[in-house]
Amino acid sequence: MTNFIDDVIDGKTKLDEIDDYVEKWHNSDSHCSVSEYLGMTEEEYFLWTEDNSNLKYIVLAHKNNINIKELLNNGNIVADSAALLRKKTLEGIPQRYPDGMDDERTKQMEYELNIIINMGYADYLLIVADYVNYAKGLNNNL
């Protein structure tokens, strides 16, 4: 049985036709999961449903026979909450420190990030940040 990922790699279909494959799965009497039907792992399927722009990376990982997390981390694409928290922290530095951070502040930032990540609070802080940013978008005074 061919699947979406293999068909894209073989040039038989295009990335934007994935919904057609999902529809075929819905209309079939297949007993496999939609991720299996598409040729993805559950992790890859989650990454795609979370952000459909990840689909090109999923196909690339299959084409090069590498794990998607390896591809996303090496390609500087964020694949987990710890990396995302670190990325967002680094992105915020220029607006808070226009002249850059000195070595002492950089070491302190790394120390605090490592504590947050090792204690498992990266997800929590990212979720809170999403709520705060959403509320700011509603013009609430936060």
Descriptors:
142 residues; mainly alpha; 0% strand; elongated
Protein model, in words:
The chain has helices at 4-9, 18-27, 34-38, 42-50, 55-63, 68-74, 81-96, 103-118, 122-137. By secondary structure, it is mainly α. α7 (81-96) packs across α9. The longest helix is centred in the middle third of the chain and has 16 residues, at 81-96. The termini are far apart. The relative contact order is 0.07. The model has no long low-confidence stretch (mean pLDDT 86).
Mean pLDDT figure: 86
Number of strands: 0
Low-confidence stretches: none
Structural class: mainly alpha
Explain the layout of strands and helices:
Blueprint: H1 4-9, H2 18-27, H3 34-38, H4 42-50, H5 55-63, H6 68-74, H7 81-96, H8 103-118, H9 122-137
Brief summary:
By secondary structure, the chain is an all-alpha fold. The protein has helices at residues 4-9, 18-27, 34-38, 42-50, 55-63, 68-74, 81-96, 103-118, 122-137.
